[in-house]
Amino acid sequence: MITAPLDIADRTRNKLIGILFVSAGLTRTGYIAAITVATLVADELLESATLTGLPSAVGTIGIALGTAPIAWFMGRTGRRLGIVGGLSISAFGAILAAAAVQLESFALFVVGMFLFGFGAAADRLARYAAGDVVPLHRQAFAISLVVWAGTIGSVAGPALLEFAQNRATSLDLEGLAGPYVFAAVAIIIAVGIVWIGLRPDPLSFVGSVGPQIERSVKVGRWLKHPKVLAAVVSLATGQVVMVLIMTMTPLHIRRAGEGLGIVGLVIAGHTFGMFALSPATGWIGDHIGRIPVVLAGQLLLVTSALMASLAAGNDRNLLVASLFLLGLGWNFGFVAGSALLTEDVPGEARVGLQGFADTLTWVSGAAASLSSGFLLEWGSYQVLTITGALLVLTVVWPWARYRRASLAPV
Q1: What's 296's domain CATH number?
Q2: Would you say residue 208 lies in a domain?
Q3: Which burial class, exposed, middle or buried, applies to 15 when counting CB atoms under 10 A from its CB (0-12, 13-18, 19+)?
Q4: CB count, 10 Å around CB of 225?
């Protein structure tokens, strides 16, 4: 058991961040390819749009339910084994989802998406591993580099949809099974890279590997800290608004008579906004402040939601622009908010608090994904996007509370 931080050279730190970057790039490519077509698969297997958001919701529920046990496992054994174990489960879920498409089984598809998401929680928690290996003043930038790896997924995932579909068809498989086979292969490669290369374990830098992690984490105490509470709420709100709009946009486009090419373009723009500018976001957060970056992200979320409300399903330019800004607003909150969760929290408490924050974030996202189908079916795409804009108001109270606390006399 390691109980004290290790003195490790910068070259080793950079190597570990590089391993996390490559792993995240592979995993996100497969994840984005698979999640983009989830509503399309559901639409093929169901007669009504009411439950088309269920597979995505179940996948997000899987992430939510996987976060706490995987974070606990990381605290006991280290980041490396936690990431390897989680991604292995995710790859198995992708294989099940592909089989479900082939068998035309919606129930099996939902099970596969749950496991796919459950294991993907390890990839989401991996960004904190980058923060473990660097000093405080570099944490936002280090986290942003791992988030930045999602740029690979944002471009390659949607761009490879037609290739994966055509490849599956050439193998006498259902076309929509292709993205899930591709996701499984990409994630399995990532597992091998992490297993071999993520040594020494990132938690060794903060001396947090071992059973003591359970005794020292008191999440409730840290949530009383106004800055921590505001960061957690901002993370959850950003996820809700992003998922609510992103999940139903492919179906909105398809119902306007457009094909996978346009879906891929819009989602590529969205995920590019989510990840591409991450290093700049991290640098700004480290040098100007994490709080201004988070608040700017909330403003971008409102702007993008209102823009999307004006877009018809075949309005490619407006959809690309609004979904890009939606992704960028999410990025601001995600990178800077994640850094805030390490800013004032000692090493031995980080894993538990991060696990709680991510659990809340993904539970909220699952609720958004599940409700998105109902909002589209019983309302409209405009109702859905305006609802997203209004939900940003939930961040006002925790940030006002933080503001009062920061102005109070010491």
Answers
A1: 1.20.1250.20
A2: no
A3: middle
A4: 15
Q: Is 84 helix (H, G, I), strand (E, B) or coil?
A: helix
**Residues 296-323: pLDDT tens digits?**
999 999 999 999 999 887 788 899 999 9
- Which structural domain, as residue segments, surrounds residue 20? 10-200+215-407
If one counts the domains in the chain, the total is 1
Buried b / exposed e along 328-347 (16+ C-beta atoms within 10 A): bbbbbbbbbbbbbbbbebeb
Residue 93 lies in a domain: yes
CB within 8 A of 223, min separation 6: which ones?
229, 232
In a domain, 162, yes or no: yes
pLDDT at 57: 79
- Measured CA to CA, the distance from residue 297 to residue 230 in angstroms comes to 13
pLDDT in tens, 367-385: 888 788 888 888 889 999 9
Q: Which amino acid is present at 127?
A: R
Residue 123, CA atoms < 13 Å, CB-side half-sphere: 33
**How far is CA 394 from each of CA 226, 236, 248, rounded to the nearest angstrom?**
15, 10, 22
pLDDT confidence tier of residue 362, bands split at 50, 70 and 90: confident
Taking the chain, what is the end-to-end CA distance rounded to the nearest angstrom? Answer: 40
What DSSP string describes 89-108? HHHHHHHHHHHHHHHT-HHH
Would you state the pLDDT for residue 220? 66
pTM over 0.85: no
